[in-house]
Amino acid sequence: MGKEVREMFRKxxxxxxVVWPCAACKLLRRRCAQDCIFAPYFPAxxxxxxxNVHRVFGAxxxxxxxxxxxxxxxxxxxxxxxxxxxxRVRDPVYGxxxxxxxxxxxxNILHAQLALAQAEMVRIRLHHASYVAHSSTAxxxxxxxxxxxxxxxxxxxxxxxxxLADIATAKPLFSYDMLxxxxxxxxxxxxx
Length: 192
What we know:
Order of helices and strands: HEEHHHHHEEHH
InterPro entries: LOB
Number of helices: 8
Family: Belongs to the LOB domain-containing protein family.
Largest sheet: 2 strands, antiparallel
Pfam families: LOB
Number of strands: 4
Organism: Dendrobium nobile (Orchid)
Protein name: LOB domain-containing protein
């Protein structure tokens, strides 16, 4: 095989010695040269890819851009151009900015949900700690059903036993339930 034939087999868009024009040259109705700058990035079997890029940016602007970008970075540049062109075709006013702002909104919502979940975990831990403190206090300080007073294992309750009982039954100054239910329109975050 000759050197030219081997080159044609390596070139994108070639088949059996016949060179097909790339999608760019086909759309622009011109002959696709051996050194066509568009051929490696806009193959003939993906014509819509270049059609959108051409419609949004123009072939001459894309040609200038590709010549200014180093060869190793051209595939990334073309990928970005195709994404932006497709987004602009779908949404002519906002283009890819609409997708970016939508993703940013989703991130903000997820951050808020994460903060609420963390607050709910704190509330549950505090509730559990209060329950453990109350149950351990109930074991040491018992209510006498005959007199209605408290008694411990000894005949009279000590001041520290009474203080523990008051702490275990005291209402918190700030209710996490109120914060969470307010954030969810009065509905609890999770049902038990």
